[in-house]
Amino acid sequence: MIPTYLLALTLAAPPSGPALVFEPPDPTPRLGDHPTALAISRDGKRMAVSHAGSDRKGTSHRVILYDTPTWTDSVTLAGAAKEIRQLAFSADGNILFGGGFGDRLYAWDTKTGRLVDTMPVDAGECVSLVLSPNGKYLVSRHTRYQRKTGKFLIQVWDANTYKKRISIHDDEVLSSFATAVTPDSKTLATCLGKSFKKEKDGFFGIVEYDMETGKEQKRINAIRITPGASPSIRCIAYSPDGSRMYIGGGEQILKSDKTYQFSGYLWEMDRKTGTLMKTILSDVGDWVHRIAISSDGKVLFTTAGLVLRQETLPNGKLVSHARGIIRAFDTDNWKPLWEHETEFPNYRGFVLSPAGTRLCIAGDSELFLLDTTNGKKKAVLIEVGKTAR
Question: Is 242:18 a contact under the CB 8 Å cutoff?
Fold first, then answer.
């Protein structure tokens, strides 16, 4: 069974043009509800965080905008009928797009918090929301079949008019939430394949589509390691020049006791030929399901594997806790730069700041910032607990 914590990845190639150098000060921790998604504007001056929590009326959900120069929560965005799980800023930062449970996407004015528009989607939950590097296109990916056609659905929207441009349907299963856009904004990639029971009878791997027409351009087969295992692709990213593709995922292996073992891998692929260039990580204790790349392409950050730590409770009982691992690699030689162990294995957000000096991570218990030079925790923005209303 696929772990429920493996959530969507929303990742685009770095935007074109010179890197922005603004880097905010470190925030002061505050109490808040569970973060379910986060995004940072391209100028680095705003962070959006979606929260889910419980109140007397049931499940509460809200999106808060933080002005990073002071870390004040400047605007709370309203109007979403259900919980938001995906966020993306427009290129100029004036609009925030959101999607999640429900049958529509949302566009908010980041200065006023006003809901500018809703974008109806005849499909299931939005599990990926990506703005193209040129800022023109918004790509949404959905889990369930489109109701009218019975086919899985990806939609490309005009990011300025909020109008749907094209829909991509396929009879095959969109087998994971991985979605990426090439640096030139001409191509989008996703994972396509059969279900675990049927994938051995057909294609499983990455498919690239033309952003303008929605037509399929290329297929790249998934790497197979263990005979009989089901492959999984959890995340896709491109190098800044678009020549290489980084693929995170792994295998689901059925053991003799009828339980599953998850083994993680991270690969570097030649995009033109679809051939394997380098196995960066292999056989780690969980799927590789998040990737971030520095704007110059020299450092790759990833969530890779988990470890079990034991703790003795006051009553003497021994319990185990799963903890996640974040790793950084030098892409010139693929030597590891550092590792950071987190208190949780479930990552709701994994975003690199525009200046590249902070890695912003949302998890079960907190939203915090890592120093990308050494992997040390720099500051905490949100500690999950009783919400300060």
Answer: no
What average pLDDT does this structure show over 248-272? 87
- Please give the radius of gyration of the chain, using alpha carbons only, rounded to the nearest integer: 20
Q: Tell me the C-alpha distance between 275 and 383, whole Å.
A: 43
CA atoms of 285 and 306, how far apart (whole Å): 5
Sequence-distant (≥ 6) Cβ neighbours of residue 333 within 8 angstroms:
none
Asked if 289 and 3 count as a contact pair (C-beta separation under 8 A), the reply is no
**pLDDT band, very low/low/confident/very high, at 346 (cuts 50, 70, 90):** confident
Beta strands in 25-71 (DSSP E): 30-32, 34-40, 46-55, 58-67
Do the beta carbons of residue 109 and residue 95 sit within 8 Å? yes
Closest CA to 70 of 96, 47, 37: 47
Q: What is the pTM of this model?
A: 0.87
Q: How far apart are CA 346 and CA 7, in angstroms?
A: 8
Pairing of the two strands 152-158 and 164-170: antiparallel
Q: How far is CA 257 from CA 154, 227, 231, in A?
A: 37, 17, 20
Residue with tokens 């529509």: 104
pLDDT tens-digit readout, 63-101: 999 999 999 988 899 888 888 999 999 999 999 999 998
Residue type at position 341: E
